[in-house]
Protein backbone atom coordinates (compact mmCIF):
# COMPACT_ATOMS: atom_id res chain seq x y z
CA UNK A 1 0.00 0.00 0.00
CA UNK A 2 1.11 3.65 -0.27
CA UNK A 3 2.76 5.37 2.67
CA UNK A 4 0.14 5.66 5.42
CA UNK A 5 -1.60 9.07 5.27
CA UNK A 6 -0.66 9.76 8.89
CA UNK A 7 2.96 8.95 8.07
CA UNK A 8 3.37 11.26 5.09
CA UNK A 9 3.46 14.54 7.10
CA UNK A 10 6.11 13.06 9.40
CA UNK A 11 8.27 11.94 6.49
CA UNK A 12 7.84 15.37 4.86
CA UNK A 13 8.81 17.13 8.09
CA UNK A 14 11.91 14.99 8.54
CA UNK A 15 12.95 15.64 4.95
CA UNK A 16 12.47 19.40 5.36
CA UNK A 17 14.38 19.44 8.65
CA UNK A 18 17.52 18.18 6.96
CA UNK A 19 17.97 15.43 9.53
CA UNK A 20 19.99 12.60 8.09
CA UNK A 21 21.78 9.46 9.18
CA UNK A 22 25.31 9.47 7.84
CA UNK A 23 27.57 12.12 6.42
CA UNK A 24 28.17 13.74 9.81
CA UNK A 25 30.31 13.04 12.83
CA UNK A 26 28.77 10.69 15.43
CA UNK A 27 28.72 13.35 18.14
CA UNK A 28 26.87 15.77 15.86
CA UNK A 29 24.27 13.11 15.06
CA UNK A 30 23.91 12.33 18.77
CA UNK A 31 23.15 15.97 19.51
CA UNK A 32 20.42 15.92 16.87
CA UNK A 33 19.03 12.47 17.59
CA UNK A 34 19.34 11.91 21.35
CA UNK A 35 16.34 14.03 22.23
CA UNK A 36 13.58 12.97 24.58
CA UNK A 37 10.00 13.44 23.44
CA UNK A 38 7.85 14.36 26.47
CA UNK A 39 5.74 11.36 27.44
CA UNK A 40 2.26 11.63 28.96
CA UNK A 41 2.63 8.26 30.71
CA UNK A 42 3.06 8.44 34.47
CA UNK A 43 4.50 5.49 36.38
CA UNK A 44 4.96 4.66 40.04
CA UNK A 45 8.69 5.37 39.81
CA UNK A 46 11.50 6.00 37.34
CA UNK A 47 15.03 5.82 38.70
CA UNK A 48 18.46 6.23 37.11
CA UNK A 49 21.46 4.25 38.28
CA UNK A 50 24.49 2.30 37.15
CA UNK A 51 25.38 -1.38 37.10
CA UNK A 52 28.79 -3.04 36.75
CA UNK A 53 29.82 -3.81 33.19
CA UNK A 54 32.77 -5.50 31.50
CA UNK A 55 34.53 -2.17 31.01
CA UNK A 56 33.12 0.10 33.70
CA UNK A 57 29.70 1.09 34.92
CA UNK A 58 26.70 0.92 32.58
CA UNK A 59 23.96 3.54 33.07
CA UNK A 60 20.45 2.14 33.41
CA UNK A 61 16.97 3.53 33.97
CA UNK A 62 14.42 1.46 35.87
CA UNK A 63 10.71 1.98 35.19
CA UNK A 64 8.15 0.60 37.67
CA UNK A 65 4.41 0.66 36.88
CA UNK A 66 3.57 -0.13 40.52
CA UNK A 67 5.22 -0.84 43.85
CA UNK A 68 4.18 -4.50 43.74
CA UNK A 69 6.83 -7.08 44.52
CA UNK A 70 7.76 -9.85 42.07
CA UNK A 71 6.74 -8.07 38.87
CA UNK A 72 7.97 -9.43 35.53
CA UNK A 73 10.81 -7.51 33.93
CA UNK A 74 11.84 -6.45 30.42
CA UNK A 75 15.47 -5.58 29.72
CA UNK A 76 15.31 -2.94 26.99
CA UNK A 77 18.03 -2.01 24.50
CA UNK A 78 17.57 1.22 22.55
CA UNK A 79 18.04 1.64 18.82
CA UNK A 80 20.30 4.05 17.00
CA UNK A 81 22.60 1.97 14.85
CA UNK A 82 24.88 1.22 17.84
CA UNK A 83 26.12 4.82 17.40
CA UNK A 84 23.37 7.08 18.75
CA UNK A 85 20.47 6.70 21.16
CA UNK A 86 20.44 6.75 24.95
CA UNK A 87 18.13 6.60 27.95
CA UNK A 88 16.41 9.82 26.88
CA UNK A 89 15.75 8.98 23.25
CA UNK A 90 13.70 5.89 24.12
CA UNK A 91 12.11 7.07 27.36
CA UNK A 92 8.59 7.06 25.94
CA UNK A 93 8.95 3.57 24.46
CA UNK A 94 10.02 2.24 27.86
CA UNK A 95 7.12 3.97 29.60
CA UNK A 96 4.74 2.44 27.07
CA UNK A 97 6.03 -1.08 27.65
CA UNK A 98 6.07 -0.73 31.45
CA UNK A 99 2.56 0.66 31.51
CA UNK A 100 0.86 -1.55 28.93
CA UNK A 101 2.62 -4.82 29.80
CA UNK A 102 2.48 -4.17 33.55
CA UNK A 103 6.15 -4.94 34.06
CA UNK A 104 9.35 -3.37 35.26
CA UNK A 105 11.55 -2.13 32.41
CA UNK A 106 15.31 -1.84 32.81
CA UNK A 107 16.65 0.34 29.99
CA UNK A 108 20.35 -0.15 29.24
CA UNK A 109 22.67 2.62 28.03
CA UNK A 110 25.28 0.30 26.49
CA UNK A 111 28.56 1.55 25.07
CA UNK A 112 28.35 3.15 21.63
CA UNK A 113 30.49 2.98 18.52
CA UNK A 114 32.84 4.11 17.08
CA UNK A 115 34.43 4.74 20.46
CA UNK A 116 33.53 1.17 21.42
CA UNK A 117 33.42 -1.20 18.47
CA UNK A 118 31.63 -4.53 18.14
CA UNK A 119 31.23 -6.57 20.30
CA UNK A 120 31.25 -3.96 23.12
CA UNK A 121 27.50 -3.36 22.84
CA UNK A 122 26.84 -7.11 22.93
CA UNK A 123 29.06 -7.51 25.99
CA UNK A 124 27.22 -4.72 27.82
CA UNK A 125 23.81 -6.06 26.82
CA UNK A 126 24.65 -9.51 28.15
CA UNK A 127 26.16 -8.09 31.34
CA UNK A 128 22.97 -6.11 31.95
CA UNK A 129 20.75 -9.13 31.41
CA UNK A 130 22.90 -11.20 33.77
CA UNK A 131 22.79 -8.43 36.37
CA UNK A 132 19.00 -8.17 36.27
CA UNK A 133 18.62 -11.91 36.84
CA UNK A 134 21.27 -12.00 39.58
CA UNK A 135 19.75 -9.00 41.37
CA UNK A 136 16.08 -9.87 40.93
CA UNK A 137 15.41 -9.83 44.68
CA UNK A 138 16.86 -6.33 45.10
CA UNK A 139 14.92 -5.16 42.04
CA UNK A 140 11.72 -6.77 43.39
CA UNK A 141 11.21 -8.59 40.08
CA UNK A 142 10.59 -12.23 39.22
CA UNK A 143 13.74 -13.92 37.82
CA UNK A 144 11.54 -16.52 36.12
CA UNK A 145 9.71 -13.86 34.10
CA UNK A 146 12.43 -12.04 32.19
CA UNK A 147 12.06 -10.74 28.64
CA UNK A 148 14.26 -8.69 26.32
CA UNK A 149 13.15 -5.98 23.92
CA UNK A 150 14.61 -3.40 21.60
CA UNK A 151 14.21 -1.56 18.34
CA UNK A 152 16.57 -1.53 15.37
CA UNK A 153 20.09 -1.99 16.78
CA UNK A 154 18.42 -2.70 20.11
CA UNK A 155 16.39 -5.41 18.40
CA UNK A 156 19.67 -6.81 17.15
CA UNK A 157 21.08 -6.91 20.68
CA UNK A 158 17.87 -8.47 22.01
CA UNK A 159 18.03 -11.26 19.44
CA UNK A 160 21.71 -11.88 20.15
CA UNK A 161 21.33 -12.09 23.94
CA UNK A 162 18.26 -14.31 23.53
CA UNK A 163 20.52 -16.84 21.79
CA UNK A 164 23.13 -16.43 24.52
CA UNK A 165 20.47 -16.97 27.19
CA UNK A 166 19.40 -20.22 25.54
CA UNK A 167 22.95 -21.47 26.04
CA UNK A 168 23.28 -20.14 29.58
CA UNK A 169 22.82 -22.17 32.75
CA UNK A 170 21.76 -19.20 34.90
CA UNK A 171 19.85 -16.82 32.61
CA UNK A 172 16.52 -17.60 30.97
CA UNK A 173 14.62 -15.31 28.61
CA UNK A 174 10.96 -16.24 28.12
CA UNK A 175 10.08 -13.66 25.43
CA UNK A 176 11.96 -11.50 22.97
CA UNK A 177 10.49 -8.38 21.37
CA UNK A 178 12.24 -7.35 18.16
CA UNK A 179 11.06 -4.06 16.67
CA UNK A 180 12.34 -3.59 13.09
CA UNK A 181 15.57 -5.34 14.11
CA UNK A 182 18.94 -5.42 12.38
CA UNK A 183 19.54 -9.12 11.80
CA UNK A 184 21.81 -9.37 8.74
CA UNK A 185 24.95 -7.25 8.38
CA UNK A 186 25.44 -8.42 4.81
CA UNK A 187 22.54 -6.08 3.92
CA UNK A 188 21.90 -8.18 0.82
CA UNK A 189 18.11 -7.99 0.61
CA UNK A 190 15.70 -6.22 -1.80
CA UNK A 191 14.23 -3.75 0.70
CA UNK A 192 17.67 -2.20 1.18
CA UNK A 193 17.35 -0.93 -2.39
CA UNK A 194 13.56 -0.51 -2.62
CA UNK A 195 13.58 1.72 0.47
CA UNK A 196 17.09 3.07 0.08
CA UNK A 197 16.02 6.67 0.54
CA UNK A 198 13.01 8.82 1.26
CA UNK A 199 11.68 7.04 4.35
CA UNK A 200 13.76 8.40 7.26
CA UNK A 201 16.30 5.56 7.59
CA UNK A 202 18.33 5.20 4.39
CA UNK A 203 20.70 2.67 2.87
CA UNK A 204 23.46 5.27 3.15
CA UNK A 205 22.64 5.68 6.81
CA UNK A 206 22.80 1.93 7.47
CA UNK A 207 26.16 1.72 5.70
CA UNK A 208 27.36 4.59 7.92
CA UNK A 209 26.19 2.83 11.08
CA UNK A 210 27.76 -0.49 10.12
CA UNK A 211 30.99 1.28 9.22
CA UNK A 212 31.21 2.80 12.68
CA UNK A 213 30.08 -0.29 14.58
CA UNK A 214 32.30 -2.96 13.09
CA UNK A 215 35.93 -3.06 11.99
CA UNK A 216 36.59 -3.80 8.33
CA UNK A 217 37.73 -7.34 9.15
CA UNK A 218 34.64 -8.20 11.22
CA UNK A 219 32.80 -11.16 9.75
CA UNK A 220 29.30 -9.91 8.79
CA UNK A 221 28.02 -13.45 9.37
CA UNK A 222 29.22 -13.57 12.97
CA UNK A 223 26.03 -14.56 14.85
CA UNK A 224 26.73 -11.93 17.52
CA UNK A 225 26.57 -9.32 14.73
CA UNK A 226 24.03 -10.98 12.42
CA UNK A 227 21.75 -13.21 14.50
CA UNK A 228 20.10 -14.59 11.37
CA UNK A 229 23.22 -16.77 11.02
CA UNK A 230 22.84 -18.20 14.54
CA UNK A 231 21.41 -21.57 15.47
CA UNK A 232 17.96 -20.42 16.56
CA UNK A 233 16.52 -23.68 17.82
CA UNK A 234 15.25 -23.38 21.38
CA UNK A 235 15.42 -19.60 21.72
CA UNK A 236 12.61 -17.69 23.41
CA UNK A 237 9.33 -17.01 21.57
CA UNK A 238 9.49 -13.78 19.62
CA UNK A 239 7.46 -10.80 18.57
CA UNK A 240 8.89 -9.42 15.32
CA UNK A 241 7.62 -6.08 14.06
CA UNK A 242 8.66 -4.80 10.63
CA UNK A 243 7.63 -1.83 8.51
CA UNK A 244 6.79 -1.81 4.80
CA UNK A 245 8.86 1.30 3.98
CA UNK A 246 12.00 0.35 5.89
CA UNK A 247 15.36 -0.70 4.44
CA UNK A 248 15.48 -3.33 7.22
CA UNK A 249 12.07 -4.82 6.33
CA UNK A 250 13.29 -7.91 4.51
CA UNK A 251 15.94 -8.89 7.03
CA UNK A 252 13.38 -8.61 9.83
CA UNK A 253 10.89 -10.67 7.86
CA UNK A 254 13.58 -13.24 7.05
CA UNK A 255 14.51 -13.49 10.71
CA UNK A 256 10.89 -14.16 11.64
CA UNK A 257 10.84 -16.92 9.02
CA UNK A 258 14.14 -18.36 10.31
CA UNK A 259 12.79 -18.44 13.86
CA UNK A 260 9.65 -20.23 12.73
CA UNK A 261 11.71 -22.71 10.69
CA UNK A 262 13.70 -23.46 13.85
CA UNK A 263 10.48 -24.29 15.69
CA UNK A 264 10.27 -21.03 17.63
CA UNK A 265 6.86 -19.48 18.27
CA UNK A 266 6.74 -16.19 16.37
CA UNK A 267 4.20 -13.37 16.38
CA UNK A 268 5.25 -11.43 13.27
CA UNK A 269 3.53 -8.51 11.62
CA UNK A 270 4.73 -6.25 8.83
CA UNK A 271 2.99 -2.90 9.31
CA UNK A 272 1.81 -1.63 5.95
CA UNK A 273 2.48 1.99 5.10
CA UNK A 274 4.88 2.42 8.02
CA UNK A 275 8.54 3.44 8.16
CA UNK A 276 11.50 2.74 10.43
CA UNK A 277 11.03 4.36 13.83
CA UNK A 278 7.23 4.43 13.90
CA UNK A 279 6.75 2.41 17.10
CA UNK A 280 7.11 5.33 19.52
CA UNK A 281 4.97 7.74 17.49
CA UNK A 282 1.62 6.71 18.96
CA UNK A 283 0.55 10.33 19.44
CA UNK A 284 0.55 10.73 15.64
CA UNK A 285 0.26 7.24 14.15
CA UNK A 286 -2.58 4.80 14.78
CA UNK A 287 -0.46 1.82 13.62
CA UNK A 288 2.03 2.66 16.38
CA UNK A 289 -0.76 2.12 18.90
CA UNK A 290 -1.52 -1.24 17.25
CA UNK A 291 2.15 -2.25 17.44
CA UNK A 292 2.34 -1.28 21.09
CA UNK A 293 -0.74 -3.36 21.86
CA UNK A 294 0.78 -6.31 19.97
CA UNK A 295 3.90 -6.09 22.12
CA UNK A 296 1.98 -5.67 25.36
CA UNK A 297 -0.31 -8.61 24.61
CA UNK A 298 2.58 -10.95 23.84
CA UNK A 299 4.50 -9.94 26.95
CA UNK A 300 1.48 -10.26 29.25
CA UNK A 301 0.69 -13.69 27.84
CA UNK A 302 4.30 -14.82 28.28
CA UNK A 303 4.38 -13.53 31.85
CA UNK A 304 1.01 -15.08 32.67
CA UNK A 305 2.28 -18.43 31.49
CA UNK A 306 4.90 -18.33 34.24
CA UNK A 307 2.72 -16.97 37.04
Largest sheet: 8 strands, mixed
Kindly report the name of the CATH homologous superfamily.
Answer: Alpha/Beta hydrolase fold, catalytic domain
Number of helices: 10
Question: Between the first and last Cα atoms, what is the distance in angstroms?
Answer: 41 Å
Q: Which shape, going by the Cα principal axes?
A: globular
Q: What would you call the structural class?
A: alpha/beta
Q: Give the DSSP E fraction (strand runs of 2 or more residues).
A: 15-25%
**Secondary-structure element order, N to C:** HHEEEHEHHEHEHHEHEH
The unreliable regions are none
CATH architecture descriptor text: 3-Layer(aba) Sandwich
**In total, how many beta strands?**
8
> Strand order of the main beta sheet, please?
1-2-4-3-5-6-7-8
Radius of gyration, whole Å: 18 Å
How helix-rich are the residues, as a percent range?
25-40%
CATH domain topology: Rossmann fold
Total discrete domains: 1
CATH class: Alpha Beta
Q: Whole-number average pLDDT? A: 96
Which structural traits does this protein have?
alpha/beta; 8 strands; 307 residues; Rossmann fold; eight-stranded mixed β-sheet
What does it look like?
The chain is globular. By secondary structure, it is of the alpha/beta class. The model has no long low-confidence stretch (mean pLDDT 96). It has helices at 8-17, 26-33, 91-101, 120-134, 136-139, 153-166, 191-194, 203-213, 249-261, 286-304, and strands at 45-53, 56-64, 71-77, 104-108, 141-151, 175-179, 238-245, 266-275. The protein has a single domain (8-304), classed as Alpha/Beta hydrolase fold, catalytic domain (Rossmann fold, 3-Layer(aba) Sandwich), CATH 3.40.50.1820. It has an 8-stranded mixed β-sheet, with helices on both faces.
